[in-house]
Amino acid sequence: MPTPRQSDLTRRLLALFEDVAGTDLAGVAHETSFLELGLDSLTLTQAAIQIKKTFKVPVTFRQLMESHRSVAELAAYLDTQLPPDAAAPAPAAPTAIAPAPQALPTLAPLAPMDGGDALLQAVIAQQMQLMQQQLALLGGAPMAAPATPPQAAPAPAQAATEPAAEPQRYDVKKAFGAIARIHTQPQALTERQQARLTAFVRRYTDRTAASKAYTRQHRPHMADPRVVNGFRPVLKEITYQIVIGRSKGCRMWDLDGNEYIDVLSGFGMNLFGWQPDFVQEAVRQQLELGYEIGPQHPLAGEVAALVCELTGHDRAGLCNTGSEAVMAAIRIARTVTGRNTVVSFTGSYHGTFDEVLVRAGREAHGIPAAPGIMRGMFGDIRVLDYGTPEALAYIREHGDDIAAVLVEPVQSRRPDWQPREFLHALREATQASGSCLIFDEVITGFRSHLRGARAVFGVDADLCTYGKVVGGGFPVGVIAGKRAYMDALDGGQWQYGDDSIPTVGVTYFAGTFVRHPLALAAAKAALLHFKAQGEAMQTQLNATTAAMVAQMNAHCRIVGAPIEIRHFASLWRVTWLEDHPLQDLLFAMMRSRGIHLLDNFPCFLTTAHTPADVAAIVAAFQASVGELQEAGLLPGGTPDALDANNPPVHDARLGRDPAGNPAWYVPDPARAGKYIKYTP
Ligand code: PMP
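A: This is the predicted complex of the input protein with 4'-deoxy-4'-aminopyridoxal-5'-phosphate.
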């Protein structure tokens, strides 16, 4: 039986773990081990620090894994370590308003193993997996989530123009990618799987030997998280990035001379293909003229004017990256409103600085999404579920305290979730409370529409942040928006020749490399190109993407592959409807067929992709899905495996679709005697 002091310690420890993990542990048996609770190594490391702080008893992460593995064991241990009067009665547990439970990016509980070493090894494996996720997040990558049980097929994607029917619950695990990106555990494969994998690895490494040699050569001195992405012991030999030495249009060539069609498109910063002539020429000319930093540059005003003209914003400021633009937007919002609280949403990505590397903790309070970020950072950050009535209710209720609501209108991790109604309601609520509505349009800006998501959804924002494509291939970030906010950068309007003075209080916004002339030249060229092309360019590209995605999805349905491509505008990404351990081989298999992409990253079409390029992308995708299925690494079968004696519905007949693939056809109810393709 626990002593009264142990019971008190247990209660305090539970509250501590709930705070650190950002999850509710009510009702959990106190003897349940931390691993069984699914608490990840980041959480346990942070818990160890908090325990030491609170109880003044040093407890290590390793102890939480090995010797004091549950709240009950830990309480008993602390009881032995604390002097008789040290565990003073604790304040009553806070009666918190229960927030909507947030799915934590926890790791799958570890299976018990024999011996401490094995357990420690497993823990280290988890630690590495977690670190990789965090590094991926830091790099703007889709943060990999832990292995999850197979998910039911999600609702079909909503068209951008349709109102959201139902608020969708945000699931962190889904939105941050479908599987863990680093596994250090060995994997058991069937004989067939092993044979196919061995053959593929040989094919891949033979083809890209120079990239592999480069990686081996530079690992000792170059620290690069991307290189280890997707590590698994069985895939170790192909864990390296393709090294690209040259590109033009949508084509790239690697060190071995292989040609690729690029669909990573520079994480979305490339909209016109690599080295479009109009950008090349502008940059070349500027290179000759010079690239001075310090004085004002003639191109700066021109670029700001073009941004305002094309987007309809009052004023614009220039910086180097999307992250810088978001950082400035938040600072401006706080300056102008005189409030502190910033609301953001789970699943959004806003860049690399601490305040946005956040995940939802208890009662929507932000907690660090990566090691090295102070918990204290997030006192004024609230992280809510995107697109939900609860989020709206929170914003309406606390509006008077909210400086800004920071929104990625369509999250790159979840492009099919396009909550139009929610965005309109958000506009109303922030307008009413005088909070700054910030649209982070670093991806959607200029790409989805000339005026970005604001135009797609018919919702105006107070401030918008841009980056990626606006730089024409060079590092440029833009913050633009309403005069009332933007004036906080320079004090607003004043004239020469009279007694006017800057009247608006200013905040800090600077950087050595902001308005770099080469970047300005590229941005101006890109903006002039946008202007000349008009909205038709985006409309056409979006339609091409939708058609390509429809074709790929139809194929997946026919062959029973648990994959769905989700898209918004010209962004598309593979979504796994189930988890299969080596499914990520799909991406390597596509690379081996000449399509350049990174595992589980969003992909982007550009205006440089021709119909033939699109057809090649689809063909490589279909062939790679087929290869995975044939190897027994993904369920379902290749089209040729469709069994004529086993139709999916009684009147289905086998035929071939326009691409020549076998497919099921059923009688068309509208046209007697005609058949249409069967879609399950
Ligand atoms: N916001 C969004 C929506 C983004 O996608 C990104 C980058 N992926 C950023 C901000 C940060 O931009 P950058 O990487 O240029 O700092």
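Residues 640-680 form one domain. Confidence is low (pLDDT under 50) at residues 89-116, 134-180.
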